[in-house]
Amino acid sequence: MNTRIDALNYYGATKKYHLHYPSLREDLEADVVIIGGGFSGINTALELAEQGITNVVVLEARHLGYGGTGRNGGQVMAGIGHDLNAVKKHVGKEGMDTLFRIANLGAGIIRDRIKKYRIDADFIPGYCYLAYNRRQEKTLRQWQQEFRTATPEEDIALYTGSDVHQVIGSDVYCAALKHMGGGQIHSLNMLLGSAQAAASLGVKIFEYSPVVGVEYGKRVAVRTAMGTVKADKLLWACDSFLDNMEPEIHNKTLVTYSWQVATEPLSDALVERISPLRGAFSDIRPVINYYRLTRENRLLFGSATRFVEYTPRDFAAWNRSLMLEVFPYLKEVKIDFAWGGPMACSANLFPQIGTLRDRNNVFYVQGYSGFGVTPSHIVCKILAEGINGGSDRYTLMSNIPHASIPSRDSLRLLLATAGKLMHQTSGYWKGRS
């Protein structure tokens, strides 16, 4: 196998925005200070600025998109969590109706933001959910009805048997559900374009400004090595890079990892063979394979270990082997990029928002559980409503309990493995295995 693993991942090597923000070297006063410069931090800052709260400071320990935003699959898919039924007992029927409506807002928010701020994020419409067997095909038929109910204006179609080849050039699937309301983006360019938009509205962004201390009170003081931000409200938006800076929320998630590769640019003929749709794809198993064809004709392919949590010795080769199970005719194709990164998973695999106990001016958002690109745009719109005085939607989501995970660091491998086995078992009964 001819594999070249570059220092930059695919996103860093192909970004179109070369933005550089200073380190914090002064003392500032703000309405809101946000710790974390990924989708959660920047999306919330932009939402607040659009609502008129422009005195916002964002502090990023490294560069914008260093975390999950610059390491993900770029999939724009429907939904807000792995399974809405996981929170049904906490929200009731009316709450479930609200969550179902919320869950289908993400792709529209992304498209509208791209148009409004002219963000060059390589958005390509078209998403396909893929079934390996008849049980999964039955699930896709149910999803087809739900998607049509939620978004009747979208082109949504189910393909079965040999018709699957109309959207995906693989023999391993028995059904494919096409949803043209979804698609794919270059997530780092989406982030950087959104950051540029936020800055144009007055948001102050600082890179390479790791936080060294936080003091809570009626006003919050956040210290870096060379400056301080005092603000009325604080948002923790670090997700899997929180590193126990705030213990109360650190123990509410468990970190697991995913791995990705990007091929060399492929010929037009090979791209056409992989997918006439040129869309983004994922199967519907509890731990999915996800992939998409980029603007440069690369195939970006990602996954995670399914049953046992471990780091493959050569994750480029490991991921490539999964790719070849789906597309065996790519065996001569070279891998140009290979990378991985952590994901913060909640116990119910549903995003978490809220405030710290007895600290109603200290907010947090985390726990996307591997599905952060689209949900972060939904969740942070609602989170901004909460920071800016509250809303029924914020109250609904923030009142969902967030279970703590004891020994989440010392027993991480064991807990992650147990969680994957439980998720696989649950997936069987829900028609996803």
Mind explaining what this structure looks like?
- With about 425 residues, this protein is α/β, with parallel strands linked by helices.
- Helix content is about 30%, strand content about 25%.
- The protein has helices spanning about 10-15, 40-50, 90-105, 105-115, 135-150, 185-200, 245-250, 270-275, 315-325, 375-385, 390-400, 410-430, and strands spanning about 25-35, 55-60, 75, 125-130, 155-160, 175-185, 205, 210-215, 220-225, 230-235, 255-265, 280-285, 290-295, 300-305, 335-345, 350-355, 360-365.
- Strands 3, 4, 5, 6, 11, 12, 13, 14 and 15 form a 9-stranded mixed sheet that branches. Strands 1, 2, 7, 8, 9, 10, 16 and 17 form an 8-stranded mixed sheet that branches.
- A hairpin with a 6-residue loop joins strand 12 (about 280-285) and strand 13.
- The protein starts with 9 loop residues before the first helix and ends with a helix.
Radius of gyration: 21 Å
Q: Helical residue percent?
A: 25-40%
Strand-pairing-aware structural class = alpha/beta
Number of strands: 17
Major beta sheet summary: 9 strands, mixed
List the helices and strands and how they pair.
Elements: H1 10-14, E1 27-35, H2 39-50, E2 56-59, E3 75-76, H3 88-103, H4 106-117, E4 124-131, H5 134-150, E5 156-160, E6 175-184, H6 187-200, E7 204-206, E8 211-215, E9 220-224, E10 228-236, H7 247-250, E11 253-263, H8 268-274, E12 280-283, E13 290-293, E14 299-303, H9 315-326, E15 335-346, E16 352-356, E17 359-366, H10 373-387, H11 392-398, H12 412-429
Parallel strand pairs: 1-2, 1-10, 2-7, 4-12, 10-17
Antiparallel strand pairs: 3-6, 4-6, 5-6, 8-9, 9-10, 11-14, 11-15, 12-13, 13-14, 16-17
Helix pairs in contact: 2-6, 2-10, 4-10, 10-11
